[in-house]
Amino acid sequence: MKILLADDHGLVRDTLVAFMETTGEFDVEAVSNFDQAFERVQKDSQFDLVLLDFKMPQMNGLEGLQRILALPSAPKVALISGNASRDVADAALEAGAAGFVPKTLAAQSLINAIRFMAMGEKYAPLEFMTAEDEKPSHPLAEKLTAREMQVLEGLTKGQSNKEIARDLDLAEPTIKLHVKTLYRKIDVHNRTQAALVAKEAGLF
Length: 204
Prior knowledge:
Layout: E1 2-6, H1 10-22, E2 27-31, H2 34-43, E3 49-53, H3 62-69, E4 77-81, H4 86-94, E5 99-102, H5 107-118, H6 126-129, H7 139-143, H8 146-156, H9 161-168, H10 172-186, H11 191-200
Parallel strand pairs: 1-2, 1-3, 3-4, 4-5
Helix pairs in contact: 8-9, 8-10, 8-11, 9-10
């Protein structure tokens, strides 16, 4: 997957690039401001995902996001930020962003988020997006993203990955990735165990 990262903070930029490159899945190019990112996207429309730091020079808030999305053959674009509010995240998603990624995410969660968005899925961490709302009522629900909860519900219904993918309008490999991730988060090893845990918790 070809990724463009734009962030003006050198240490953060290098760390994010290192995280992505360790997987062997990503071909990452990094720039330090919005104008450089805009120029690269104009010259090369083959990026699977563009990650824009919300506070970097020339970004002008959501204006930078909107400028890239308005380009012909615009790539998927997501915001990354260390301190943006939930309102900013909501506005970015409403404007067509592929997602919103807090820089506070753990390394593996960050990689999963980038992978999901590059595959065409929207991403925003549930714990961030619901921070000002009522918290999930069960500790198990707090471990999972909104999408993982949807996939887990499908498992409790005995659905196959293909059926879950059809219901959620996603690719089957994306569902497989979600299933693997939620197994790890709730400490189970197969679909039956996942369904039992969810039912015992009263989630569905």
